[in-house]
Amino acid sequence: MPTSSAWETQVEDLVPADVLAELKAQVAARAQVRAQTGSWPAAPARVRVHRPDPAAPVLVELGDAHTEAIEALRAAMKALGVTGELSGVLTTLTLACGTLTTPPTTTEASAAGTSTAGTSTVGDRDAEEALRHAGAPVALARAKDLLSVIETVDKVSNQLDGVLVSAVRDLTAVRGRLLMADKGVADPDELSASQREKWTKAAKSATRHELEAALGWYASEIKDLVALATSPATTLAPVLHSLATGESSWATVRRFYRAAGPLPHEDTAAIANGLFGDDPDASVTDRLDSEGGFTGGPWRAGEFNRALDREVAKHTTKDEDGKQAARDRARANQDLRVRMDDDGTAEITIGCTRLQAATIADRIGQAAKSARQAGAPELIRELRSKTGIALLMHGTL
Question: CB-based contacts of 397: which residues, under 8 Å, 6+ apart?
């Protein structure tokens, strides 16, 4: 067995100087506490010996339980196939949830000048009481932590919206392949133009039906989700980029697609790159600084709505043909359409103005609420449907 000095020499050869110095300082500090109190402090020094990457050398550094728990979480996600940016997103969300569910410790309360002793964590039901007695500094620190949790969850929610859109895109593609297999077709190139159009519509319809059953969203929102997810790559790529960075949400990109989706593909793509891309040459002025550099950052609702309306107006009114096409689209939408499905259900769509739609929805919604308050056992959404059907079937002009 090597002598003490020989062992120290081996340690110095293996452990980085800064880590070794910190360890020696911790040992000295703990020895001082031992001499003063007669007992060792609760938290000993920790050394982590790990290999960050299979191709990298073994790394020796100071460690702590928190860092090791994060690495264990990432390792577990990797074992389940969750890697790359998504792994980081979910790790961030987990840490935010941990902050929310971990109340202040009694150590923090003592640091704030209270008489609370010890270092144990206060139970969840006592967290509010602990904050009340901890003093302003601890309460302020807790408020900052909670605000950070809210910001993190909001950003991660946007990033997961991107996962949702990507999953819907892939689901539609799988549905399309299944439909081709049912027809005995191996490749879309074997289809004629009209057959391919029918095949695309059928795949989207199948996806919509699945999502309506799985999510319970309004049919109109499901329709927008599938339409955006299956839009051309020139439009979808910048949208997914903005969602992945957390700069936009599903509500933001949905409003974009409802406003710009009906335009020609080239115009829709141009607006998407202007609002959601990071190329200074293509971005709208709202995303640039005074020198023309890209600024980025999360979209604020008011700023986004103004920029979107401006860009859509720019493309729809750039010439008389565009204006006429917009009028033609509005006129073509003024109709009553019926879609019947094989399961015996059907949908009725009435084209009208936004104001008319809002008024109709409000009146039917109020009637449904009144029926519910009067004792009708159906759900509100069922009552809305029944009210609208009754008015259309039995109302007289």
Answer: none
Type and span of the H or E element at 337? strand 336-340
For residue 268, give the nearest of 227, 299, 298, 297 by alpha carbon. Answer: 227
Given this model, what pLDDT does residue 129 score?
60
CA dihedral 163, 166, 168, 174 (to 10 degrees): -130
| Domain chopping of the chain, boundaries | 11-147, 148-230, 231-318, 336-394
| Alpha carbons 188 and 195: distance in angstroms, whole number | 9
Angle between helix axes 265-276 and 250-260 (nearest 10 degrees) is 150
Return the ∠ at Cα 63 (arms to 59 and 67), rounded to 5°: 105
pLDDT digits (tens, 9 = 90+) for 214-267: 999 999 999 999 999 999 999 999 999 999 999 999 999 999 999 999 999 999
Helix runs in the chain, H state only: 4-14, 17-37, 65-79, 84-101, 106-111, 127-134, 136-183, 193-215, 219-229, 233-244, 250-260, 265-276, 301-316, 320-332, 354-373, 380-394
Based on its alpha-carbon atoms, the radius of gyration of the chain, rounded to whole angstroms, reads: 30
